Amino acid sequence: MSTPPAIELTGLAKRFGAVVAVDGLHLRAEPGEVVALLGPNGAGKTTTLDLLLGLARPDRGTVRVFGRPPADAVAAGDVAAVLQTGGLLKDLTVEETVRYVGSLYGRHSRSAIAEVMERADLTGIARRRVGRCSGGQQQRLRFALAVLPDPQLLVLDEPTAGMDVSGRRDFWSAIRRDGAGGRTVLFSTHQLEEADAYADRVVLMRRGRVVADGEASEIRRLALGRLVRVTWPNATADLLAELQRLPGVRSVEARGVTVWIRTEDSDAAARHLLHHTPARDLEVTSTSMEEAFLALTSDLDEQEAGR
Ligand SMILES: Nc1ncnc2c1ncn2[C@@H]1O[C@H](COP(=O)(O)OP(=O)(O)OP(=O)(O)O)[C@@H](O)[C@H]1O
């Protein structure tokens, strides 16, 4: 039998009252992949990770972790998480904390503890009280605790939020070293550079959906395309589908009387729109990396309001 994917989320949906947090999300990750879930605040990243870990139940859709329901995978020790918050006992030292949690997993040996501390770059601060550690050091400690049971999948929810540049770099080099051992890693972030620097693959989320999924370099290329905007009242689904088939077109979205086309070939899109459709007021913008990323992930309503 072939190995099941490490993560398989199918048609996942979750709402909180009137708020749709996750909206028909599909995501699959193979064993050993390091995947970034990238998106702005409120995109649904934390909710997706909670569903993946079995901390919340989906309204629709299925979650499979190594082919099993999340609760079974967690119970089997196959998955561990570093969440945004997580209780650490401030009065223990770093090493005491690792030993204490190690004993819960039956990992008492000096060598096992030393190895995890080394991997998380904690050896130099072994005797420091947790309460005196920086935010970055505390996150590395949470990471060490998460990998103690040697899970096959490690899930991290915005693990570097609030860290300075060097704290972030140290944290990620520990994760990278660890990932090299074949562990699957899924982390959320709202920083494009972080996703680009540390993930093999980037899954871009907006409003509870996946809007792009590919190697970091592909996402960069996607973000660097051009945006064509036209006024086009009553654009039919058929005509919009025709646009979608033009060379270089990445996405087409209609909101009210405005249609947005993200494309690598704005000339072809412009020619088609002006010659074959009633669209008018055509505008082509070439955006910077940062602007383009914001355009990909923010609400189109906000962009329109900003113009
Ligand atoms: N327990 C809850 N009750 C009500 N609304 C919620 C709850 N949890 C999340 N939401 C809403 O669901 C949407 C998605 O939230 P989520 O935290 O998953 O996004 P996120 O991408 O992780 O954002 P951030 O980067 O800010 O953590 C948001 O609009 C949020 O306000």
Write a concise synopsis of the structure shown.
By secondary structure, the protein is of the alpha/beta class.
Describe this structure in words.
Helices cover 37% and strands 28% of the residues. By secondary structure, the chain is of the alpha/beta class. The protein has two domains: 7-219, Rossmann fold; 225-286, 2-Layer Sandwich (Alpha-Beta Plaits). Bound molecules: adenosine-5'-triphosphate. Adenosine-5'-triphosphate is lined by residues 16, 19, 21, 39, 41-47, 190.
Topology:
Blueprint: E1 7-16, E2 19-29, E3 34-38, H1 45-52, E4 60-65, H2 70-75, E5 79-82, H3 94-104, H4 110-119, H5 135-147, E6 153-157, H6 165-179, E7 184-189, H7 192-198, E8 201-206, E9 209-215, H8 216-223, E10 226-231, H9 237-244, E11 249-255, E12 258-263, H10 266-276, E13 280-286, H11 289-297, H12 300-306
Parallel strand pairs: 3-7, 3-8, 5-6, 6-7
Antiparallel strand pairs: 1-2, 1-4, 8-9, 10-12, 10-13, 11-12
Helix pairs in contact: 5-6
The structure holds adenosine-5'-triphosphate.
Work out the strand percent. 25-35%
Q: What is the domain tally?
A: 2
* Overall average pLDDT: 86
Which CATH architecture of the largest domain? 3-Layer(aba) Sandwich
Query: How many strand units?
Result: 13
* Distance separating the two termini: 55 Å
